[in-house]
Amino acid sequence: MTSHAAEVEAARLLLTRLGVTPEQLLTSTTPPTAQIPTFTTYIRQVAESVSPGTRRIYSTYWKRIEDVWGDRRLDEPTALEIRQLAERTKAAAVTRSNARGGRSAAEHLISATRCLYRYAVADGIIAEADNPATRVPKPRRLASTRRALPHSGLAEIIEIAGSTGNDPELDSLVLRFHLETACRRGGALALRRTDLDPQQCLVLLREKGGTVRWQPVSPTLMAQLLAHHEQRGGDPKAQLLRYRNGNPITSRRYDHFWSRIGRHLPWVRSQQVSTHWLRYTTLTWVERHFGYAVARAYAGHEGKNDAGVTYTYVRAALEEVARALAALTGEAHPLSTDGRPSGLPPIAAR
Prior knowledge:
mainly alpha; DNA polymerase, domain 1; hpI Integrase, Chain A; 3 domains; 16 helices; 53% helix; elongated; Integrase; Tyrosine_recombinase_XerCD; Integrase_recombinase_N
């Protein structure tokens, strides 16, 4: 028996033991066309499976996909068609003062499409090799125009926040919370009374991607958060930050806040300063005075893709973050004994 014949015979023996016939190997594993859902059907299924944050971001773009391809099957559009739809979405993007040529709209359209096809691959509706969305590159991101605020500019914002508006007490509290924790808006909006540890002056932050971390805050801020809950009520397991009438604040409070600050400070309006600039400000200060590892821990960045292997060995501890906070605010912290001078303008307790 030749070598080739022996290999064929071995293959036949293996197939026999597996209970597979050669004819079955020739049968396509791709689901029949009738079983492949349309975009309208599948978008609704995926929308029920993703997190509220993902649904909020992608819903606009899924609606656009449904308007264009609603009756088509998932296996019909090509990579070229997806790219063409992204370009049309880019061209139709609403022009705002901070617009960047519709790049973000195109990027989100592609991301929303990739999300649909990831589920389709996982469900076995299409094969990974047949996924057209992975063959469409996202637009190159431009460098962010955000930066750390200068000390004088931050002092101006703090002054306006505490002396104008219909609830300066609330605005000053929210402003201080973001400056001390460098958290995102979602972290503040998700804060609950049960997330406060008064004894160690720690707050539990829940931010994007489902990340959860303990973050040090100053004794003054902790006292303000506790007083806020006592005065404005609410379930300890519900949102902590509330209006005077007891209703929880939403992201619209941030929009109104920066709109008001912009009316008093034209440079805030022209440069499109937002809450995320506060995160830049605090983390820049921490990095300059305490190094990259502490700033990374302060920000809650735990991924290793952009940090290198060394970060595994130099990761900062919570006590180091507390030490940086103590220096930032000029207040002693239970987890730190460092008494360096303050790095922020004073935020008066109101």
